Amino acid sequence: MSTPYRAALEHTIQCCRRRPIAIDAVKQRPVKQRTRQFSKTQRRWVSDGSRPPTPPGMPGPSKVVAPKTRVAVGVVFLSALIYSMATGDRPPPPSADPSQQPPPRSGLQLDSPSIAERDNLSKRESGISATSPMRLRMEAFIKENQQDIVRTLETLDGTPFQIDKWDRPNGGGGISCVLQDGNVFEKAGVNTSVVYGTLPRAAISQMRVNHKALDPDVESLEFFAAGLSLVLHPVNPMAPTVHLNYRYFETANKDGSTNAWWFGGGTDLTPSYLFDEDVIHFHRGIKEACDAHDKDYYARFKKWCDEYFYVKHRNETRGVGGIFFDDLDDTEKDQESLFAFIQGCLGAFLPSYLPIIQKRKEMPYTEKEKQWQQLRRGRYVEFNLVHDRGTAFGLNTPGARIESILMSLPLTARWQYQHEPEKGSREERLVNVLKKPVEWL
Length: 441
Description:
Blueprint: H1 3-16, H2 67-87, H3 115-126, H4 134-157, E1 162-167, E2 172-180, E3 185-200, H5 201-207, E4 220-234, E5 241-252, E6 258-270, H6 276-291, H7 297-308, E7 310-311, E8 316-317, E9 322-328, H8 335-347, H9 349-360, H10 367-386, H11 389-395, H12 402-405, H13 426-435
Helix pairs in contact: 1-2, 4-8, 6-9
């Protein structure tokens, strides 16, 4: 036993050897110390080594049964207490067979920190730099771009965004920026979300289809997800709705090291009335961003976009496309190259969309054209609630913030029974394009 614990034990033994507390023999409880006023004539006693006689009127000393037993019990109790303090655990139960005793534990057993706790500590101690984990760099990147986009759209619309910050109990949180009933936008949402959580074994098995690095034998894995999502629904039916999302996903081992990672994202345009020049401008900006990193990306990811944003029960695409990709990991390119690609695509958004909205936001329109816009928004809602994987993931994530997930839905929409566009109309032309995607470049 170490010196501090031995000293504590010896101190308690000495305390146990002291004169015992007087016990009321009738009521079986300690007798309170009482003082009594004697007459002014006080008696003094000279000790001859024996116990002094009891003063008149005071109860006699009670005898304590088995004082040596009291000492032994006190020693055993204190030994158990000191053992618990030293090992951080309860002592093992006594056993006649030493082989049945569990091995002693050395000190307190602490759980390893989660990746959320590791990241918070890293941000406090050293901030975020080019050498920080990709989790932290992606989080900083999307938050910076969210601020830039919100400032630009506020200037365009003349209406401030409602900014709503929220935290998740297990780590992470988000910033939801929403504008409603504005001058240019009926509804606009620009959200960032950072999520820490745990994937159960069933989810790991599903993800292994595209990510073989995931360990199939573990019961669970910590994960991190961060992304920026944007949806703009203009007031004017001549101006197109636009969607954007860029995200990063990572799983971690128990020691906090990265298990698997991948990027995903894209952007697409959904007009109610088709202006070819607008669609061409939008696609050209995206293609330039793709070509700066890989000449095959635009054609590959445009096809992926047309296939992903397909409303199966309507037999048409949601809009006129853009790019879409998912699960880009180290089998595609290294992490830094893919992060640079994400940065380039997000940086191309405002130049590809702002000229379109500035050109169309003041155009005249009729009530009939407004109703057509509402019908097309109904199709937008159908895709998001029935087919969109991002919406499904968010709604099925424990503790998810539903208001932020459903931010993508328009403020108003319309479903009209058996509606068919007039033959030869602009509305019919749009539907024909949606049923057979066009190569705009």
